[in-house]
Hints:
The structure holds three protein chains of three kinds. Chain A contains 19 helices and 13 strands. By secondary structure, chain A is of the alpha/beta class. Chain A has two domains: 3-153 and 316-362, Periplasmic binding protein-like II (D-Maltodextrin-Binding Protein, domain 2, 3-Layer(aba) Sandwich), CATH 3.40.190; 156-312 and 377-444, 3-Layer(aba) Sandwich (D-Maltodextrin-Binding Protein, domain 2), CATH 3.40.190. The radius of gyration of chain A is 23 Å and the shape is globular. Chain A starts with a helix and ends with a strand. Residues 5-40 of chain A have low confidence and may be disordered. In chain B, 74% of the residues lie in helices and 3% in strands. Residues 1-6 of chain B have low confidence and may be disordered. Chain C has a single domain, classed as MetI-like fold. The model of chain C is unreliable at 1-6 and 285-294 (pLDDT under 50). In chain C, helix 3 packs across helix 6 (151-157), helix 7 crosses helix 9 and helix 8 (177-185) packs across helix 9. Chain C is built from twelve helices and no strands. Chains B and C meet through helix 1, helix 3, helix 4, helix 5 and helix 7 of B and helix 1, helix 3, helix 4, helix 5 and helix 7 of C.
Amino acid sequence: MxxxxxxxxIQAMLNRxxxxxAAGAGTAAVALSGLGSAASAQEKVELTIWAWTPNTxxxxxxxxxxxxxxxxxxxxxxxxxxxxVKLRNAVRAGTGLPDVGQVEFTNIPGFRQLQALLDMGQYxxxxxxxxxxxxxxxxASEGDAVYGIPWDSGPMGILYRADVLDAHxxxxxxxxxxxxxxxxxxxxxxxxxxxxxxxGTADGGWVIALLAQAGWKPFELNGTDLKxxxxxxxxxxxxxxxxxxxxxxxxxxxxxxxxxDWFTGLDEGTYASxxxxxxxxxxxxxxxxxxxxxxxxxxxxxxxxxxxxxxxxGGSTFAVFNTTKHPKExxxxxxxxxxxxxxxxLWNTKQFLFPVLKDLVADPELMSHKYDLYGGQAVxxxxxxxxxxxxxxxxxxxxxxxxxxxVQQELSASIGGKGSxxxxxxxxxxxxxxxxxxxxxxxxx
Amino acid sequence: xxxxxSRTRRYRVSKRLAPYLFLAPFALLFIAFLIAPMxxxxxxxIYKTTVVGGTRFVGAENFVRALSDPKFWQGVTVLLQFALxxxxxxxxxxxxxxxxxxxxxxxxxxxxxVSLFLPYAVPAVIATLIWGYLYGPAxxxxxxxxxxxxxxxxxxxxxxxxxxxxxxxxxxxxTGYQMIIYYAALQAIPADLEEAASMDGASxxxxxxxxxxxxxxxxxxxxxxxxxxxxxxxFSEPYLLHNLSPTVINNAYTPNYYAYxxxxxxxxxxxxAAVSFVLGGVTAVISYAFMLIVNxxxxx
Amino acid sequence: MTIVGKSKRSPTFRRNRWMLxxxxxxxxxxxxxxxxxxxxxxxxxxxxLFTTFGLWFSDDFRLFENIGQVFSYQDGIFSRWxxxxxxYATVAGIGAAxxxxxxxxxxxxxxxxxxxxxxxxxxxxxxxxxxxxxxxLFLLMSxxxxxxxxxxVILPSxxxxxxxxxxxxxxxxxxxxxxxxAGRVDGAGEFHIFSxxxxxxxxxxxxxxxxxxxxxxxxxxxxxxxxLSSAEYFPVTVGLAQWYATATVGSGGGAALFTLVLAGAxxxxxxxxxxxxxxxRFWQGGLxxxxxxx
Lengths: 445, 300, 294
């Protein structure tokens, strides 16, 4: 992009904001298409994007309307890990990568490590930085280098069964201390009923998110020097906390999340709550039946009374791969899909993605929809508040998939009889240190 | 005289060349799509690529590491136990079904044939749903039945029950497959043999056990060898059960699963390749040992 | 198959018939239980799937809606997946059966140099698990630009080593050497002997290898998962797995597609049943005249 084009771009964006406030989103498309024809050379460009979110074609259609000289082929190359395997294979083969791809926040560092991502900052991406909630942007960028345009997020909260809690006169826990008390009280009052199911046996990401809420910052990477302290005091505190609940049979450990029994259990009230991201709120109504109307949402329990620290679980970005032959257009596609107001609105209303744009999160009409499953509660408000309190300094490791897998493995092993959860973290530290040394990092504590 | 000579000459060349020509299509595809990737995998195993430091030649280092890896050998032990539990039962039941179907003395033969084969056709993706339900410790049908009868609920997913539970799934999936092979083999037995046996006074049962069964033994041996190989490469069932019972099954439960984890979760491609080759070696040793025992007579 | 000397009305025969049928029925129940779960689940709505008794129908019977949804979801891509799978499995099945039969015949009926070695190599190659070979295969196919095409699935699937072994044993059993010698004496060429004289006898084996490799290709998940990235080439296994994954999400946009996946799985069994029924005809085997097995 030449300096002239950059200035034009910024002017168009500024104009667009004013236009939006005056005249609504329709004009934005016009202004943007003006931008499109100014910035590109009017040649026909073909882009490929890999994304698994259903019905993404609708949003792509909005893009092609605004940028008629760019045609976009959408491929669903698999979800999450399946897509990443294909991406990594394509990186190794040197060919076959798409221009743009859906990459979760957790996996951006990994692909950066493989040197597969294009720095979109060089193609004007930073111009939309301010539209995004801080931590979402920070998670996929480093200074002026932008590796992912945030797409959706999963600010965490607690979804709970009001009927079960009321029946046993348990108040919604506001702190983890209260949570522990309530768990024990519930299990004592009703055997085979648990306040929640322990997600760590099946989902390392869940553990890491909750640890992040507790302030866990397990590693620092400086070039090839890696400081690793997975079994630090915070991890131990967390481990001891949950071990206590496990020992008191106050938390479900027999049924991993995402199994048939777990779905049934949620509906039956065997598990009275689910600590999860905003997307969970939309997921439950799709399979629940008896519990319809009885669910509610509340903020995540806190370690310190009076404070509000939240965490993020899930969420994707649009990343551009550096083998692309059209970095400018690919950046335009990523930026548009992530930040165009009409498109962002559609992601929320059609696919129920939790937004990452400040404007949307502040939009009362969108965020105060009342859900039947939640007895008429406007659950999004809980998650909007949660999104404001996610720590933006938490970093994912370049080997995040491996780490999440190992967390799940070691915690499961402990629950299966190999010691306590604390021991699991000690083992984790050993195993991951060995792995990182093997990968060539210089590892220290 | 001359005409005869030219004919025999053509016949001789054809006969020597013929086997190679018959083998050619299979051989070419085999080399392209099995041998070539194997060679590539072998080169992966003798190198090491790290995130920091790039790729370097390491010779036998990965193999030595695999041979001394306790996770690998634990997995092999699991497999041997599994094979002992699963294979005999499956072969016996498959033979039983094949013999019954072949005897012609049942109702609805075609219906049984198709429906007993069906499990092999069910896509693996819904296995998690199926077995997650059937084995469900809280809401599965056997648990519900037990609750109804006041009995203690069965738990299919405890460490002690895990191998039988996996074996059960494998049996369900593959018995029909084996049955088809045995049934086809039985079809090759000429019917007049049976007439002769019957005229000698043999009942159908005796005929089945003493004549038909021994005649299809070579086929049974082949399927057992492939079952042994399949058992030693066990992957999809533990992978499925890992999702259902992560506290009992870890992602190195069998060596093949371990190799998969190393490659696709840990991105340790080189070591994964070495583990696969060592597994191949162990498989070869066990399979050839089995064949030696069976083929004492000398038929390969 | 008639049993000489025993009429179909004899009491022993009828008792045997009942007993054997009963044994089969018990085995059948064991086989059918999980299948029944699939059938029942495919008739439910997502909200009923986990909340009603798994082995019986719910009040909200939705089989036809679910089937309709299977074929219309995502712009009707399921039909495409089904077609892909049929093509891959049929081509690979016929090809694998043909090449395995030829190879098995050669190994059974000829003595030639390198026979034992070839045997050992084929068996040895099977000992390396597929999981180790798929990515190298992908990388090699990438070099020749074959990835993300139907050939990337079909060509590797034409290689079916168990078929070679099965056909070798079968050819050994089913083809008397005298038949081949007689053909040679009559001056027939080797290939003519194979195709005109022996192939008929090999039919049950051929049909078996065909159905086995057909289903193996039909079921193959890992190979197409790695070598295909466009949904238009997916077989049903990969497509359904994708739909299933959308249900167990963690990144937003998740739609509970369980009943869709179950209905899709049910539908995908049907072509296999058809193929099987068609193939059953070829199991009439036996030597020459008088050897007809019912």
